[in-house]
Amino acid sequence: MGPLRRSEVRKDSLQIPVVVQLKDSCFLALHEGAIDHFAPFTMDASGEAQSLRFNTDYSPQGRAFQTSWRTFILGQRAGDLVESNLLVNLNPPNQINDSGWIKPGKSLWDWRVWGYTTEDGYTYGPNTESHKRFIDFAAEHNIQYLLIDADWYGAEFSTESDPATAREGIMIEEAMAYARQRGVGLILYLNDVGAKQFGLERVLQQFADWGAVGVKYGFMEGSPEEKVQHTRRVVALCAKYQLMVNFHDHPVPPSGDRRSWPNLITREYGHAQTDSKRSYYPETAVNQVLLNMIAGPIDMTNGWFDLNGAHTREKVFEEIPGTVAAEVAKLIAVYSGWMVLPDAPEAYLVKADLLEAIQQMPAQFDSLGVLDGKLDEHVSVVRRAGEEWFVGSLTNREVRQLAIRLDFLPPGKTYVATLYEDAEDTHYQNNKEAYRIRQNVVVTADSVLSVQLAPGGGHAIHIFPHGK
């Protein structure tokens, strides 16, 4: 929601984080660290114009108890709130003795590709043949994982669908063996119905025995307090069986808890693109970076290339507003331990030169900084991986000219930049797939790049040492 004047807000339950701009150079984020047992708080803005109150729901039953940390994050810029490590530092240290198996990365995703037909006539669907095509593409294009989503073990919400088995047409053990051979990890979907009906630990142990590397856990039911407690059970059991986890479908808010449980890779804390049978507009992507990411890593399933035709598929319900340059930029701007790519392999190959931008991205970045940003309008993020830097910029529905200062680079060194840009006539509604690439742009820490973003567009920059 927002940005809105405080006097315009009359809601008694605002979800966290809540960001308040007090003046031009003073921003405040309200959130909580280490949500471990009780329900997350919400904010009450129904009272007098200058007040905000905490809504809390505790049931200590006469005993001493410990709440999460109430946090007030202050910054001179909206981006300062995103860069803060306060939430992480308020959580207990790592609870996993040997965490070497926890490896963030990029992942293909089968769910939104169902119904995509290639030029040679192949149509993707929920079957092992399709999964092998994904695995081959991942192995050849520096993508570490494949996420096999709902319905792989039966009708998604049926109490008869056992997650320790696979539906007809899916040979999960064969897919696991093929993925291992090609050096690709498989992530398996599990929802609350299947976990509770057939035994959470039994299912997770079976996933591990098959060789899965992670779980996407969806549609958790229960009261807010019950969801917090069940989230802890899922994460701890996943750690026991060396499984990473991604929560979707209205999960408990991130609260820095990845410090204690680094296998908690990401969450859909916000509206992922084309989820909930709808799509979102460009200003939402801007605000996800400046608002939702304050809470921690989020899975927004960005990276669409077939923007013109995706909505004709079985699991894409509305046309997607945006540009392909913005889709690449989102992969840099949005922090997520798993970069879940939603499109078909062949859709990426149609724009092979743009795909190179994704291939060059590392499995995990080393740092994040917000160069500039204004709520509801635009944002620019820089991320480093070793001696390489990636810059992603997004705008709302307005065309925008930005000056990207490269003073984050080490002084006295020369670098080369590749720029992935909207074309002159790109538009988020009627010319989404037009883009251009500028290569071999020599830059230093003193350089300032002038870049133009189309309405609803974006811009991505890959910077690497000269001579690489």
Summarize the topology.
Layout (H helix, E strand, L loop, with lengths): L17 E6 L2 E8 L8 E3 L8 E3 L13 E7 L2 H6 L2 H4 L15 E5 L18 H13 L4 E4 L23 H11 L2 E7 H7 L1 H11 L3 E5 L5 H17 L3 E4 L16 E4 L14 H9 L33 H10 L4 E4 L3 H6 L1 H9 L6 E8 L3 E8 L2 E8 L4 E6 L9 E8 L12 E9 L4 E6 L4 E8 L3
Parallel strand pairs: 6-7, 6-12, 7-8, 8-9, 9-10, 10-11
Antiparallel strand pairs: 1-2, 2-5, 3-4, 13-14, 14-15, 15-20, 16-19, 17-18, 17-20
Strand content: 25-35%
List the quaternary state of the chains. single chain
| Fraction of residues in helix | 10-25%
Given the structure, what is the number of helices?
Answer: 11
Give the radius of gyration: 22 Å
Number of strands: 20
Biggest β-sheet: strands ordered side by side in the sheet: 11-10-9-8-7-6-12
Largest sheet: 7 strands, parallel
Outline the structure in words.
The protein is of the alpha/beta class and 468 residues long. The protein contains 11 helices and 20 strands. Strands 11-10-9-8-7-6-12 form a 7-stranded parallel β-sheet. A 6-stranded antiparallel β-sheet has the order 13-14-15-20-17-18. Helix 3 packs parallel to helix 4 (172-182). The radius of gyration is 22 Å and the shape is globular.
